[in-house]
Amino acid sequence: MDYENKFDHQEPHYFLKRKDILSVLDDFSLNHIRDIEYLSGGYSNINVKFSTKDKQPLVLRISNKSQRQFETEIAILKAVKNKIIVPTVYDYKINHSLLNRHVAILEFLPGTPLNTVEASLAPEDIKIIAQQLGKILAEIHKFSFDKSGFLGKKFNVVDPFISFHESCYNYFENYLENKLLIQRIGVEELQRLRSLILKNDSKIRKLTNVSSLVHSDFNQKNILVDKRSKKWEITGILDWEFSFSGSPLIDFGNFFRFEREMHKDYKPVLIKSYRQHDGCLKLDWQQSAKILDLLSLLEFLTRKGNYPKTFTTAKTAISSTISDLL
């Protein structure tokens, strides 16, 4: 899956000077730094791999997100560590004085983003990975809360929704009235989109499991894999800053957004594994998952600024969903 040609980076990619990196690490009492290396794949955050005198590889994560999103990610990494393969959090600081950003020291997880290798994988390898992903998604969604909403630094809901359906409806209405959206997709496509959302409103209203932990960016670029003893394994799930309490279908909509470009064995194997590991997924899940994924696509198209690859990708995906479901 070629994400580099599908999405723009949210800000110009830049590199910190070595002395600045060392200064930040010194604030964490880390010295004798060696092997500094920028990690690829980040679309809004910066990740720098380095090692210390004991040769332990670590990651300096420089966040471009809000304080709530940053603290949410830190809290989630700590909370799910015993169930999901995520990096250990060693330390973090809010609004680092030098960078004016939130920074964290994380464990370095070995592996390669799935999107960079999946095109070369054999069908049996795809099945092995899909089986593991089904289990991981089931484990993620077993974490539940007393309500839907945005999470905070104590791994609890700090900004609850009136209801999951009501929140989705309000987001859809705000996006559909956004002038940038009208400019970017046109009046005719907007009318088709509105009709599709209204047609499926009752499906979203009837969803029952709407207070599970949702990764909300669960796709191949945030999944690390590595080949060990001739077998591919999932070695990490990254980038949890968008996570919240909501419907697990959001993760399915995200992962299968580009289903036409994915290997045909992904879906049946992943879904079977998810259900085998006590994941609850109704027979008609696909339509609701596609509708919920429109929320992310519409967010892309209502961003200020010029992101041509992102806009083209979102418009194509929306048109595909309208054609499939309307």
From TrEMBL:
Originating species: Kiloniella spongiae
Record-linked SUPFAM superfamilies: Protein kinase-like (PK-like)
Transmembrane segments: none
Domain Protein kinase: 33-326
Molecular function GO labels: ATP binding; protein kinase activity
Name this protein carries in UniProt: Protein kinase domain-containing protein
